[in-house]
């Protein structure tokens, strides 16, 4: 029967990672998949993670199952990280959080729960968005539609167009919003825009579904949760999905969470039971190791402080690299003014070059990025930035 299956194109992001790995050129540069790289081009295990991992392995005396909803310490720690410990929704018993296999697992659990609560519910996704958002959410039976988000000509959020579309959405429809470090464009909502969007959701009865996969990589752990916290304090129902891949570097451990704010504590209990039931139906239980590490770090003052410092270093380096790349490109007098890159945040920005130019960068210069011209800023370092800038200038000639 498998002969009935259709061939699948390579994944828009991970397919490029595969091409990069197959390239034998010693000078190749990877600006594709969203993985943090240090000045040496490595993705090391954080020191705080190493310490927590060692302590856990030494203390662990069983590998028995944990729970469908995952590690309880992780869930409470993540909920506090998302909302802040004194948030009224948390204090009011209106938040249910389940550990999931990565942020993608969180999106999937949330997607299934939304579809179960409101069959054929419509989710509005930003255009552009992470290329996996739509295929992943479609699998849970939701209807997907896009809203305009990025103004490519002026390299900023096209807030009027976004609001224009969402203002026509119907009560009970869902809006997927990037909490910070928009993937792929790096252009985030301002505080005023979060406020306006919250009012719009209030007015039209829309449910925000916030993907907060990069908390801590824009302005700071607290600052990056501003929009999620605001919406959770004003709206009766909010979904927040988070990931520990980027801010704790736990990519392959698959650690994330789906967190749901409900109108009442009674509804929150229903949500927890149903989210657990969804998880049981998809993967039964999430893997424990990464979540145990996160729980350990979040509940140990010394390790937490060390992690916050490591995160600060990553964030500072990303923002510094943005400026460095802009300066290097400006020095080459490229026909495109790339100064917008320094204003964007997180791992990604679009260069705004054509697909043909992206392919030339790959084939002629061994520089890999997603075909949309999304670059992972963390793949740049002081040793390769001139090569990157020269190659971009060359393909723009
Ligand atoms: C990315 O956008 O590059 C990352 O989130 C990795 C992925 O799974 O696509």
The ordered H/E elements are HEHHHEHEHEEEHEHEHEEHHHHEHEEH
Secondary-structure content class: alpha/beta
Please give the largest β-sheet: 7 strands, mixed
As a whole number of angstroms, the C-alpha radius of gyration is 21 Å
If you had to describe this structure to a student in words, what would you say it looks like?
- It is globular and about 60 Å long.
- The chain has 2 domains: 10-45 and 312-395, Aspartate Aminotransferase, domain 1, CATH 3.90.1150.10; 65-299, Aspartate Aminotransferase, domain 2, CATH 3.40.640.10.
- The protein has helices at 14-22, 47-59, 72-83, 88-91, 102-117, 133-138, 159-166, 191-204, 226-234, 265-282, 289-298, 301-331, 340-343, 355-365, 385-396, and strands at 29-30, 95-101, 122-127, 143-148, 150-151, 156-157, 174-178, 207-212, 238-243, 255-261, 348-350, 367-368, 374-376.
- The chain is 45% helix and 14% strand.
- The protein has 397 residues and is an alpha/beta fold.
- Strand 8 (207-212), helix 9 (226-234) and strand 9 form a beta-alpha-beta unit.
- The protein has a 7-stranded mixed beta sheet with strand order 2-10-9-8-7-3-4. A two-stranded parallel ribbon has the order 1-12.
- The mean pLDDT is 97.
- Bound molecules: (2S)-2-hydroxybutanedioic acid.
């Amino acid at each position: 029967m498998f002969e009935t299956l259709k061939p699948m194109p390579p994944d828009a992001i991970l397919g490029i990672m595969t091409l990069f790995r197959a390239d034998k050129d010693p000078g190749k540069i990877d600006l594709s998949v969203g993985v943090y790289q240090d000045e040496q081009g490595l993705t090391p295990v954080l020191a705080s993670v190493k310490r927590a991992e060692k302590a856990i392995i030494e203390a662990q005396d069983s590998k028995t199952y944990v729970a469908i909803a995952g590690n309880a310490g992780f869930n409470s720690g993540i909920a506090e990280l998302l909302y802040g410990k004194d948030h009224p929704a948390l204090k009011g018993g209106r938040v249910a959080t389940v550990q999931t296999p990565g942020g993608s697992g969180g999106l999937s659990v949330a997607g299934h729960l939304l579809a179960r609560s409101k069959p054929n519910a419509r989710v509005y996704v930003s255009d552009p968005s992470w290329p996996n958002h739509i295929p992943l959410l479609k699998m849970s039976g939701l209807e997907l539609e896009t809203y305009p988000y990025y103004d490519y000509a002026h390299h900023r959020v096209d807030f009027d167009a976004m609001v224009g579309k969402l203002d026509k959405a119907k009560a009970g429809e869902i809006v997927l919003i990037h909490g910070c470090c928009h993937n792929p464009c790096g252009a985030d909502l301002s505080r005023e825009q979060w406020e306006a969007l919250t009012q719009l959701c209030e007015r039209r009865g829309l449910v925000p579904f916030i993907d907060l996969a990069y908390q801590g990589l824009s302005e700071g752990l607290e600052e990056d949760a501003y929009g999620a916290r605001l919406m959770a304090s004003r709206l009766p129902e909010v979904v927040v999905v988070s990931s520990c891949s980027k801010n704790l570097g736990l990519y392959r451990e698959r650690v994330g969470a789906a967190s749901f704010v409900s109108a009442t504590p009674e509804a929150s209990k229903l949500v927890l039971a149903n989210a657990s039931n969804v998880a049981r139906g998809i993967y039964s239980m999430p893997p424990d190791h990464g979540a145990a590490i996160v729980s350990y770090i979040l509940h140990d003052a010394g390790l937490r402080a060390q992690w916050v410092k490591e995160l600060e270093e990553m964030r500072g380096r990303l923002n510094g690299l943005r400026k460095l790349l802009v300066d290097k490109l400006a020095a080459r007098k490229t026909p495109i003014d790339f100064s917008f890159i320094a204003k964007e945040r997180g791992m990604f920005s679009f260069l705004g070059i054509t697909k043909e130019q992206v392919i030339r960068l790959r084939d002629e210069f061994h520089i890999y990025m997603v075909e949309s011209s999304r670059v992972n800023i963390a793949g740049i370092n002081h040793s390769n930035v001139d090569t990157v800038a020269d190659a971009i200038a060359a393909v723009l000639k």
